[in-house]
Prior knowledge:
Blueprint lengths: L1 H13 L9 E6 L4 E3 L5 E8 L7 E9 L8 E4 L3 E3 L5 E8 L9 E10 L5 E2 L3 E6 L9 H12 L9 E11 L12 E13 L9 E6 L5 H11 L11 H10 L9 E11 L4 E3 L1 E2 L13 E2 L1 E5 H11 L3 H8 L29 E5 L4 E8 L8 E8 L4
Parallel strand pairs: 1-9, 2-10
Antiparallel strand pairs: 1-3, 3-7, 4-6, 4-8, 5-7, 8-10, 11-12, 11-21, 12-13, 13-14, 14-15, 14-18, 16-17, 19-20, 20-21
Helix pairs in contact: 4-6, 5-6
Amino acid sequence: MLSIVLGAFASCSDNNDDYEGINEVFLLADGEKTLIESEEKIIDITVQLTRSMKEDISLTFEFVNKTSDIQNILELENNPVLVKAGENTAKLKVKSQLKEVLAQNTVFAIQLASSSNQDIILNTPLELTVKPDPKFTALTEDQVNLLNTYKNNGLDLNPWIGIIPVEVKITFPGGGYLGPFTEKYERVINGKTIITLSEHATANTPALVMTENAMGLEEYIYEILKQETILDTEFWTEQPMPQQTMQLINLSSSSEETFKLALDSLVFDKDKKSINFVRSDKAKDSYGDHIAAVGFDYQYSAWDRMKKLIDEGNQDAIDADEQGGSVNPDNYINITAIDEDGWYESNWIETSSSFNNETGEMKFVFNFDHANAGDYIKAEVTFTSPLK
């Protein structure tokens, strides 16, 4: 979508002398639009004018908090932005002020506060989501004892317990069935994942669970889910059953929702230095049959509301869910087995994993897909222990 928009702008800028319409400012995030409040992460934003001007243009931006009264969480760099004469792009940077005061996800909109040319207007404010710092629940005495049992047997899992930094390299070959999934791309995502001892762990089964931002993919998969549903204004939102769903649970592209991604039962093999994380009892294909896949658990507020109606026997909700209006993440994410090439001559790679306490790295390589992907997405995930 970004390349299409920029392409359209480039076309306009090549014909500046002919274009006499409104000169608008577009704000385009170069990648993820989410950051954790404690992250020293910078979000780069392209400031794009419909057409260049004969004089320098100064644009001043400001934040508007859309979900609470808390202010001064984010900071703008390069503000005011100077778009030089004859050019139509510039850069704006956003970073957290690292105050660590948020208790919930908070949305900030970047708006145009003033311009040296009053005829220039902002097309649409750019919304960024700031997440509060992850909270790690202290281990119980029984969990500490179990970890000590593993350590005495030669397997130290302590480096992987806590809030663990993660880097994900995403490779998507393109060729999908909706606009956002047609172009190939590579992307690097940095974040933090909460990892603790699984409730399924025993003395003979050393197992961990990623309770938040599993594999570093929480925001990425949430964006895919939205693009498959409420952001698909060409198909999904135009159909009767999705419209029924949206009305039943008051869902829209602007409704405030929460999404969490977890992954349980990562079983460690101390001899092979590997982790078993692929399951065959969770994900299902389009026929309803179980398939081998990374067994993500989803907590999505829109699906929670819809499932409540379904469980209560609401026939409208049941019909909408079964006839194309589902918002259940399981119906969109991981629909093709990854133990073999289900897309045939595709982006498929063999799943692998490893951990090394000496280097402080834990790695996973795997595929996953979604309903309109048209191919596998490859994820290369590296966790770095803060104990090293």
